[in-house]
Amino acid sequence: MKINENFLKLKDSYLFSTVARKTAEYKSAHPEKEVIRLSIGDVTRPLVPAVISAMHGAVDEMASAATFKGYGPDKYCYAYDALLDSILASYRKKGVTLEKGEVFVSDGAKSDCGNILDIFSTDNTVLVPDPVYPVYLDTNVMAGRRILFSDATEENGFLPMPDGRVQADIIYLCSPNNPTGAAYTREQLKVWVDYAKKNDAVILFDAAYEAFVTDPACARSIYEVEGAAECAIELCSYSKTAGFTGVRCGYTVVPEALVRGGVSLNRLWARRQSTKFNGVSYITQMGAAAVFTEEGERQIGENLAYYRNNAKIISECLDGLGVWYTGGKNSPYIWLKCPRGMTSWEFFDYLLENAQVVGTPGSGFGKNGEGFFRLTAFGTEENTRRACERMSALLKQS
Ligand code: PLP
Questions:
Q1: Cβ contact 12:24 at 8 Å
Q2: Biggest alpha carbon distance in the chain?
Q3: pTM exceeding 0.85
Q4: pLDDT of residue 235
Q5: Coil, strand or helix: which one is 134?
Q6: Which among 23, 70, 210, 390 would be 20 to 30 A from 88, CA to CA?
Q7: What's the pLDDT score for residue 398?
Q8: Which residues, 6+ apart, have CB-to-CB distance to 362 below 8 Å?
Q9: How far is the CA of 179 from the centre of ligand 1 (A)?
Q10: What pLDDT shows up at residue 12?
Q11: Residue of minimum CA distance from atom 8 in ligand 1
């Protein structure tokens, strides 16, 4: 018996555990000081009433033999029509027409980011951005694929564009991006789509933060770009859109038009899902189906506006200090350049010790993250304001 030795090549990530340990050590040494976390990567606002009421209704259905539901319907890999209809309607609002059979409901984008690789050969070369959401990297290390990086830097606004000299088969794009908050315009994505088609590559487009896009030039779906259906798979999530991080629901779009080596990737993914997955719970699906109703959209809009306002508070604070950053406008993440040439961890310590504010060191997301720092808009408005006042006072005086 042999284990998968690729697992031994994975680098341990100490990022979040080190942030937690340093914060705990500081708190125990200074119990009188109140520490504010602008490092929260999880949502904090509760589920909206439309979702709660739909889920309660589904629980009641499960309580009666007449309305009880077991496994979901086979036809669309266990997704219910009500949910698929609402997803198709939300795409129509973006000017994108999809068929039900092109949408696969899942327990979230993280699983699908890794699972989708089942349909691709391990001989493929993968292109991931640096800095990066670590899942793209680690899932490919596990599979033993060759990995190349596209450099996201201050010079390109943390939005790398294709390099014609690089030949990649699988391309990960994340927009709006975690960790940098930067969002591609449709025009920029068109360049990626053209590159992918020219190279016979497939783009895995992570749209987990699409609901935060407000700039009309930026895409909320890669399918807003002409030709994308022939080269892109889109990964979506209810987590940040509707506070489903603890409920677990997402969806992946594999268009019918996506064919490689004469084979439909939609068929391969359907086969993979029907073999290895048994669907998302009925209660969760009914909750998710309520998200894109008129009432649901209005209610999630209030939560999104709350986070956007926090992002604006942080952005305005940094504008006032003359600190360079990306994100904050189409994203709950703000990615700032550490002042006075500090490294990411130096700035972490400096902010914790002198302002009692915790953020996430950019170097933990890849080599190009060194010297950068991630703040998030997922806290309370009050804490966000107070953290910004403290940062302003500290960085103005120094
Ligand atoms: N993709 C990105 C870029 C993320 O930042 C996250 C979560 O933080 C996910 C996917 C995971 O989403 P889900 O909760 O649907 O698994």
A1: no
A2: 69
A3: yes
A4: 98
A5: helix
A6: 70
A7: 64
A8: 131, 179, 335, 338, 344, 369, 370, 371, 372, 373, 374
A9: 11
A10: 82
A11: 41
371 shares a domain with 306 = yes
- What is the CA(168)–ligand 1 centre distance, in A? 23
**Which protein residues touch ligand 1 with a CB less than 6 Å away?**
41, 108-110, 133, 174, 178, 206, 208, 237, 239, 245, 250
Q: Whose CA is nearest to atom 3 of ligand 1?
A: 178
Bridge partners of 260, per DSSP, are: 263
For the beta carbon of residue 309, count every other beta carbon within 10 angstroms.
Answer: 12
162-200 pLDDT, tens digit each:
999 999 999 999 999 999 999 999 999 999 999 999 999
Where the chain has pLDDT below 50, the residues are: none
Across the chain, mean pLDDT equals 97
- Domain harbouring 310, CATH code: 3.90.1150.10
- For residue 233, the cross-strand partners are 204
Last residue of a domain, one of 272, 294, 316: 294
Same domain? For 145 and 268 the reply is: yes
Identity at 193, one-letter amino acid code: V
Q: Are residues 188 and 117 in the same domain?
A: yes
Same domain, yes or no: 351 and 325: yes
For residue 208 the two structure tokens come to: 């987990």
Residues in the chain: 398
**End position of a domain, from candidates 294, 320, 355:** 294
